[in-house]
Amino acid sequence: MTIWDSIILGIVEGLTEFLPVSSTGHLTIVAKMLGLQIDDPSITGFTAVIQIGAIAAVVLYFWNDIQRIAIAWVRGLLKPEHRGEFDHRMGWYVIVGSTPIVIVGFLARDIISGPLRSLWWVAAALIGWSVVMVAAERLSSKSRPLTRITLVDAIVMGLVQCLALIPGISRSGATISAGLFRGLDRVAATRISFLLGIPALVGAGVYELKDALNGDVGAVPLIVGTIVSFVVAYASVAWLLRFVAKHTIEVFAFYRILLGIVLVILLATSTITAT
């Protein structure tokens, strides 16, 4: 992997990590176009590690919220009278909602980094989950703001987040769709999606670090890719929150379908190979 490869992949990660278009799917496609071996453990490790840059951008963007929730969560542990506060409950929601993907991701790690890295899987997931996103947008009441989120909402979104381990589905696309089906408004579903992603993506990045460093990637491309993804992701997060406040997420679904169809054509004509 060259420095230019890491810059390009860092840009792709930063742009797509929090948009409901599948960062892993896009990274897999772009890595293939760059001539990289997409099922190589060092390459899959690299794509997981540079996610930490995107997560750092989210932490910085939501720092005041995260700090407030963390303080309220600890205060509630120490003083029972504070356990009914919204921020204390939100702390538990993030913890509980993040747990399923940590467990499933660890148990299914060999499948995720191996067979599921096929571009056929990516194409199928891009198209298939787009139908779910459109249904979520059109069927949701979008009647509940963030302050009305419940533990059940967090559990459902956390369980659905596990499906994003399949490249092409999109972690944010899965969790936002689940939030909409639960009746949350777009902004609430999106903010919870961001918060649920922090523990999961940091854990995946740290776990995959050894594979990225032990292969042909090297430390310098990892650092460059992570920094680039941080810068681009910060702008992406700010833009998406403004966008979902006034616009439907269906535009992302239609983009995903188009990309999936193009990918199927390229694979079917042997213009590119699946792995």
Topology of helices and strands:
Layout: H1 3-16, H2 23-33, H3 41-49, H4 51-61, H5 63-78, H6 86-107, H7 109-113, H8 119-139, H9 151-161, H10 171-181, H11 186-214, H12 219-244, H13 250-268
Helix pairs in contact: 1-2, 1-12, 3-11, 4-11, 4-12, 5-6, 6-9, 6-11, 8-10, 8-13, 9-10, 10-11, 11-12
Structure description:
The protein has helices at residues 3-16, 23-33, 41-49, 51-61, 63-78, 86-107, 109-113, 119-139, 151-161, 171-181, 186-214, 219-244, 250-268. It is mostly helical and 275 residues long. The chain has one domain (3-268). Helix 4 (51-61) runs antiparallel to helix 11 (186-214) and helix 11 (186-214) runs antiparallel to helix 12 (219-244). The two termini are 17 Å apart. The mean pLDDT is 91.
Number of helical runs?
A: 13
Radius of gyration computed on alpha carbons? 18 Å
Instruction: Work out the number of β strands.
Output: 0
Number of spatially distinct domains: 1
Instruction: Give the overall shape, derived from the CA principal axes.
Output: globular
Summary, kept brief:
The protein has 275 residues and is mainly α.
Main features:
undecaprenyl-diphosphatase activity; globular; UppP; transmembrane; Undecaprenyl-diphosphatase; 0% strand; mainly alpha; single chain; 275 residues; cell membrane
